[in-house]
Structure formats: structure tokens, C-alpha cells
């Protein structure tokens, strides 16, 4: 049983490390494909940026790369 | 005279009051445009219908001004095939496949029963069947596979089975975490598959004992034990299923973990076809593997649990492997018969 529990622990550790690295490597869409302006409904998860206030007239600042 | 003036004033007042109203009424009462007439109001008259767009698919060209080049895909007819596969074929086919496997194993269990060691009783001598690395790899891959299967089956059946049971909020939360778990446990699964290939491929190459094993159906029905080396033909089929379908799952899984990196939308759909089909088949195969390794055969679990098996079990199920161990002089791990009583 010790090997089984060790294997379960190893799979969780590998999943957390590799999966966490994978998720950190992913870019939010507003950073991967930035645009000067887009009408959006979900500030923070959109093409404009996380600081977008929802005002369509606002010009987004390009995020630091 | 006064009367004439009064009548004239009344007529003028009526004329001023009624005529504009009549004119307005006349406008309202104008007959509506007939449908189909050349002048009929049709707000979508200038837009092309879908069939026409499909006919012109190779001819229509344009450009998109946003960075997402995928937005340039105007029509993607293959999406209909994918929708049919995802919404109709996949849930039914995979459901039937998995249910049929469980039913077949249940019928086998209740007709044949557990395969016992009656004709090869325990000798008390233990030999090593799998070392620590092999067992660690097996259980790590197994843990990952169970997480991947359960979270992946949510994609097959979630909205049909779970959603009505737990409601939209719980289903949304579960699906979110299921997706995260699927993406993260994919990595130990891939690592486990690769290590298993390197570790076990040599012992899983088909040999002359396999045909006899298959002809006798492993002795499951006749209660015999056809000779086998380290792995019999049944175990080799499990191994090669894991290799083929596991690698297919790993390859298409990585393609989907990095969407549109190498393939377009149609390529992503094909990755999904292969991934979900391989998953359904491998889930059915692994259910059979779990049955044989636990409920179906006495002594099978110990091989992967403790890594040791009784010499009697090994002689019964892997007689040629035991002969090879004797030839190279591999000593038993321990002899229970000669151990001092505690």
C-alpha cells in the first residue's frame, strides 16, 4: 500500500507542478491579442485588458510585455 | 345673416377639424405591402443566406483587422459533422461501449466466477514480479487515468446526466474544476505512459506462446493455464492498447492544450474526434483490466500491490517466465515456510 500512496502523491505533485507551469505559461487573451478598443462585457477577461472600465470610448493602454 | 354666418363658421370648423383627421386616417388605412411583391419590406433582403455562402465559400475573400486570425473563417461546414459527433454519436457509442464491457464482465463473473488457484496451491515461496519503479509508474498512471476518465466523461455525459441531478450552479463549478484537473493530470499520465513503454515494451513483444493462449482464451473458460512468459497475450493486449490509445490521447491532448498552435479549427475538431474515441475505448479496456486485476483473478492484485507473487501462482499463469528466472538464477524474495514465527 505504501507504493500506491506514494504513487498517488507523486501524480498529484507532478500534476500541480506541470499543470501549474502550463497555466502560468498561458497568456490572457487581452495580452495575447491586444486591440485598441473592443466593446466587451467582461472586463478583465477580454480583448481590451484588465483595467478596462467598460467605457467604449476609452482607449486601452498597451499592457507591459 | 347671422344664421348664415353661424352655419358658415360651423362648416369651417368641421372642415378644419375633420379633414386633417381624415387625411391621417387615410394614411393608416393604406393597404399593407403584399409579401412577395417587388416592394415588400424585407429587412434581410440584402444579406446572403447560408446555402449561398456555402456555394461561394472558395470565392469569398476578405480580411480581418483584429489580431485573432481565426476570425477570418467565414464558414466552417465541418463543424456540423463535429456537432453531430459530439452531441449524438459520442454519448451513445461510448455509453454503449462502456456499458457493454461492464455487462460482459458481470456475466462472466456470475457464470465463471473468480479464477482461483485450486490446481496450483500457494507454495509459500515469494518471487518478485514488479519492482518499485514499475509499481510506482503503474499506480501513478492509474491515478492520473482515473482522474482524467472521470473528468473527461463529464464532457461525454455531464450535461445529460449530472446537470439535471445537481443543477446549473453546481454543474458549472464541477465542470470548471474538472477541466482544470483534466489539464493538470494529463502530465503525470503522459509521463507514466512513456516510462511504461520504456520499461515493459521488451516483455510485451508477441511470442510463440501468445497464439495458444488466445486459442484457449487464457484458460478462463476451460480452467486451464496455457504457458506464458512474463506477460501473457491478454496482458500484452492491455499493454498495446494503453500504448496505442494512450499515445493517441497524449498527442491529441497536447494539441488541444495548445489550441490553434499547429492546426486550424478543422484540425482541432479532428483532434477531438481522435481524443474522445481513444478515451472511450481505453476506458472500456481499463475496466476489464481492473476487473482481472482485482475481482476476477486470485493473486493478481498482489503482483502490482506488493510486487511479490507466490511461486505457485507464477507457475500456473506464467510458467515460461518462472523457467527463465530459474535459468538465470534469480533467487526468491523470501520463503514464508522457513521464516521464524513471531
Structure explained in plain terms:
The complex is a heterodimer of chains A (65) and B (342). By secondary structure, chain A is an all-alpha fold. Helices cover 43% and strands 0% of the residues of chain A. Chain A contains two helices and no strands. The longest helix of chain A is centred in the N-terminal third of the chain and has 24 residues, at 2-25. Chain A starts with a helix and ends in a 33-residue tail after the last helix. Chain B has 342 residues and is an all-alpha fold. In chain B, 66% of the residues lie in helices and 3% in strands. Chain B has helices at 2-28, 50-55, 78-112, 132-200, 208-215, 233-257, 265-296, 300-305, 311-317, 319-328, and strands at 125-128, 308-310, 334-335. Chain B has a three-stranded antiparallel beta sheet. The longest helix of chain B is centred in the middle third of the chain and has 69 residues, at 132-200. Residues 16-39 of chain B have low confidence and may be disordered. Chains A and B meet through α1 of A and α4 of B.
Summarize the structure.
The complex is a heterodimer of chains A (65) and B (342). Chain A has helices at residues 2-25, 29-32. Chain A has 65 residues and is mainly α.
